[in-house]
Design a protein that fits this description.
This protein is of the alpha/beta class. The chain has one domain: Rossmann fold (3-Layer(aba) Sandwich). The chain has 7 helices and 9 strands, in the order H-E-H-E-E-E-H-E-E-H-E-H-E-H-E-H. The protein has a 5-stranded mixed beta barrel with strand order 5-8-7-6-9, surrounded by 4 helices. Helix 3 packs parallel to helix 6 and helix 4 packs across helix 7. The radius of gyration is 17 Å and the shape is globular. It starts with 9 loop residues before the first helix and ends with a helix.
């Protein structure tokens, strides 16, 4: 039987990767997709790779005098949870997710933005961190700053984001009850990202580009409007950083 309290902590693993205190910045812009992370990387000056582990790579550099960390922070709930722990234990105090989502309202289009206001947990990873009745919360001030920047640059929807683990089980029997709980969008990352950041008492927020619509059946993964929204999201994310 296991006698130790824990097998492996985030600090242990960071140490094994030769990570040192101060290597990360105060602010992080985190994406699931590698290409978004690389677009963020192009914005930084004097950039240093912090480490690569299990396909997740982080760099830290400077943007207009501010030390910023960027990287691909997970595609799904489990990897998003442990990567977010890396970031928090590594000293980052402000975490912003630049992600994507499926829309849960008919009037939402591919390329629109969703600003997470409420987190609706449907994932399995956060059950290991918090009780079922735990309410994960984005930082109000940071979320308002993102809203201020994005609302003049595109169509912005603010509301609940539901995180699921099962992409091919987005059936009406499963989806509709979450819509009734206030979800206007669905993804596979935001819940663990926000929940873990909450537990470490970090400022956290999430802005997502709409890639598809579950109500209309629209699939926009290869739509130019989605790609344009992704590129603009990077620019606007750094504008938020500039104003923090």
């Amino acid at each position: 039987m296991m006698q130790r309290d824990i097998h492996l902590s985030p600090k242990d693993l960071l140490s094994s990767l030769q990570f040192k205190d101060g290597d990360f910045g105060e602010i992080a812009l985190i994406s699931g997709q590698q290409h978004r992370a690389k677009m963020c990387l192009e914005k930084l000056e004097d950039c240093v790779k912090n480490f690569t582990f299990l396909g997740y790579t982080f760099w830290t550099g400077f943007y207009k005098g501010k030390k910023v960390t960027v990287g691909n922070g997970g595609f799904y709930a489990p990897d998003s949870a442990f990567v977010t722990e890396f970031l928090c234990v590594g000293g980052i105090n402000t975490l912003i997710r630049l992600g994507s989502c499926g829309a849960l309202k008919e009037d939402m289009n591919v390329g629109d933005y969703v600003l997470a206001a409420d987190i609706i947990r449907g994932d399995g990873a956060t059950k290991y961190y918090v009780d079922d009745n735990y309410i994960s919360k984005v930082d109000d001030e940071l979320t308002s700053k993102i809203e201020e920047v994005f609302k003049t640059e595109g169509t912005l929807h603010r509301g609940g984001v539901w995180t699921t683990d099962a992409l091919f089980k987005e059936t009406k029997e499963i989806v509709n009850p979450y819509i009734e709980k206030g979800a206007i969008a669905v993804d596979m990352v935001t819940s663990p990202f926000v929940t873990v950041a909450n537990l470490y008492k970090r400022k956290v927020a999430a802005i997502l580009a709409v890639s598809d619509n579950l109500i209309t059946g629209t699939l926009g993964f290869a739509d130019y409007r989605f790609f344009e929204a992704e590129m603009k999201m990077i620019d606007l994310g750094f504008k938020v950083v500039e104003e923090l």
